[in-house]
Amino acid sequence: MEVKISNYCDDDNFVEYCAYGLSFDQMEFLNNNLDEETLIEEGVFKIKMYFDDELYPFRSDVAKFRLDDFIAREEIEMNVFLSSFLEDM
């Protein structure tokens, strides 16, 4: 599985992720069992997560200077989260 951030918004504190390389059964499992906004579109699993102000990952001053590092970290963390969730499948 590969996870990429497809969109994020500082005003609304959300991050949208796309997960590639999942089987249809895996996408259906995630879509039916996660509480966040999810969507399966053209073979890609999409998840949109909203954060409280203090937890939004791109709000810090460091994130503004090292945005690529923060994006990569968020993609890795979402990959781990989805992978661990799929272990219950």
Radius of gyration: 13 Å
Quick one: how many beta strands?
A: 4
- N- to C-terminal distance: 15 Å
Strand content: 25-35%
Largest sheet: 4 strands, antiparallel
Order of helices and strands: EEHEEHH
Mean pLDDT: 92
Share in helix? 25-40%
Instruction: Identify the overall geometry.
Output: elongated
Q: What's the number of helices?
A: 3
Structural class, by secondary structure, is alpha+beta
Oligomer: single chain
Q: Low-confidence runs (pLDDT<50, min 5 residues)? A: none
Widest sheet: strand order?
Answer: 1-2-4-3
What would the keywords be for this entry?
four-stranded antiparallel β-sheet, 89 residues, single chain, alpha+beta, 3 helices, 39% helix, 30% strand
Summarize this structure briefly.
The protein is of the alpha+beta class and 89 residues long. The protein has helices at 24-33, 61-65, 67-86; strands spanning 2-9, 14-20, 37-41, 44-50.
Characterization of the model:
- The protein has about 90 residues and is an alpha+beta fold.
- About 40% of the residues lie in helices and about 30% in strands.
- β3 (about 35-40) and β4 (about 45-50) form a beta hairpin.
- It is elongated, with a radius of gyration of 13 Å.
